[in-house]
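Thread: glutamine complex, take 2
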Amino acid sequence: MTDTIKSLAALLAEGKTSSVELSQDYLARIERLNPALNAFVTVDAEKTLLDAAAADARRASGNAGPLTGVPIAHKDIFCAEGWLTTCGSKMLSNFVSPYDAHVIEQFKAAGMPCLGKTNMDEFAMGSSNETSYYGPVRNPWDTDRVPGGSSGGSAAAVAGRLAPAATGTDTGGSIRQPAALTGITGLKPTYGVVSRYGMIAFASSLDQAGPMAQTAEDCALLLNVMAGFDPRDSTSLEREKEDYARDLNQPLAGLRIGLPREFFGAGLTGDTARAVEEAINQLKKLGAQTVEVGLPNSNLSVAAYYVLAPAEASSNLSRFDGVRYGYRTPEYRDLTDMYEKTRAEGFGPEVKRRIMIGAYVLSHGYYDAYYLQAQKLRRLIAQDFVEAFKQCDVILGPTAPTTAFKLGEKTADPVEMYLSDIYTIAVNLAGLPGMSLPCGFDAQGLPIGLQLIGDYFAEARMLGVAHQYQLASDWHTRAPAL
Ligand code: GLN
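Output below.
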């Protein structure tokens, strides 16, 4: 099946298929496979086909853009007008958004039909998609295993070919880690490149949206759609529009790849270590050279993140109070009782844990001891990268410490779950771009992810490195038998 965004766009341009036809094919696949995978929370064929018919009409009138007519799935964290937008929570289980997120507007403007809203960890808190109110998503490579999280529905949809691409968000690894665990390519841009307007907030100083697809080339084309200044997000960056596909064909000769010694220590073993090593050799054959770099404070990133992210979440999630929208408890005595019952019933255990940690670290007497210390660590962690990028053009390492684990394997121990993001979190704390791409399989046939980290705004170069690797390898073309 020729099913990259790039190849589908070519078929549409040549008139060999229509958007309606393509969308119908994907909807049929969703209907057949979603009951087993649970990748989608909402599918609405009528809406999708209306979008598709409009895309075909636009193409017929000669106004098509490069991706007009190619359908895409959206993580259920993005507000989409007229669509149920749940964020994986009971709290928003009745919330039909009255407006579009900036990201959704951009895809609409590009003429890309929405295939549905994908399942996710509740409020994007998790690494396995098991915290969703809508039940866990299953990994298409082995349905007893998790797809990673929190963008697990998007990852499973792309890996299982239920959608050619999907959007995700990444606060501590939620695009890259599920991309790794499902064998797809996912990119988290530099903080501020994609507007957070209409993207339900978890930890605002870390949240960033990005594309999930089969290839780096597709991610470049999708980022071209998503990126752009938006005055409605105060952290959106006012920069000149750039073409993220411009460096795809740049050769790797002379490229300096930084290998952080902290990423290749005792924690990295077995098949993941081997696959990453082989990827490094492949890149060397393509002309790259390697240099050892240090990220001495990266071992503190998980600790700093689990102070800062809950602190921001406790503030962001205070808006869910049963008053204006979303879930409200059916019976209550007075206003305080209504707040208490609504939040007790509407949030799941992981979200409550984060709210309590966040309120604690921000409280008088603990603020200096925890929140302020974590902010200082964040600065040190970011500074490590500034130093490292003086010696290299791109940093490389594993995306995740393990391949896809079994459902239920880590749910009893939150800290064990938090360690799934040990290689990805520092990138969010620093605000840097990072991506994951497939680099092999373990002995059980489960995909392994390779992480690339770029300097600020170096997405195009990073995508170019990934594309050159994908031209020389075929891991990204493997699909699970479904
Ligand atoms: N797994 C991390 C967490 O639970 C990161 C989630 C994310 O990136 N949204 O917070």
